[in-house]
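for the writeup, i need someone to sanity check this before i put it in the appendix. the sequnce is what the collaborator sent (i think, or maybe the updated version? ugh). structure was predicted straight from it, no edits. if anything looks off just tell me and ill rerun, i have time this weekend
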Amino acid sequence: MTPTCCRRCANTSSSRRPKKGWATPGRSRRPGPLLPFGRYLARALIDDLDGAGQIFDQMVAMTEQVLGEADKRRTTPPTADLRTRAALMVAMEMGIPAFQAHISRSIGADIFSPEGDRRVVLAMLDITTHPVISADEAGALRRGMEEPDA
């Protein structure tokens, strides 16, 4: 039997199993067995417990690699530096388990349950693949940031 990265891949024939990559089940942001640790990790980061900073820095470094590869496929260059984008992306993702109780209450499903996790993943995919503001609006906001404070 070929080893697999998760239950989804284990239940998929090898010919239909996706290759490893950012958007494959083996690279999901919260693999099934680690779900209970999401809340702990978020709390450790918020409380700045010993070692939490190192974990955050490692997460940022991994995210920098992913964003760096994605940048190569962009049609326009990034307007913010890679490190800042990676750090904010990690912080936003860690906000999900940090606000578990509130998000779960809002969506009517525990985000650490299979159904809640599925809904969070689908929502994050929708959010990250559809712009919230237009390119013109973003440009106007960038220009406003370039002006000195009055």
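Helices lie at 7-10, 35-46, 52-72, 82-98, 100-107, 114-129, 135-146. The first helix runs from residue 7 to 10.
thx in advance!!
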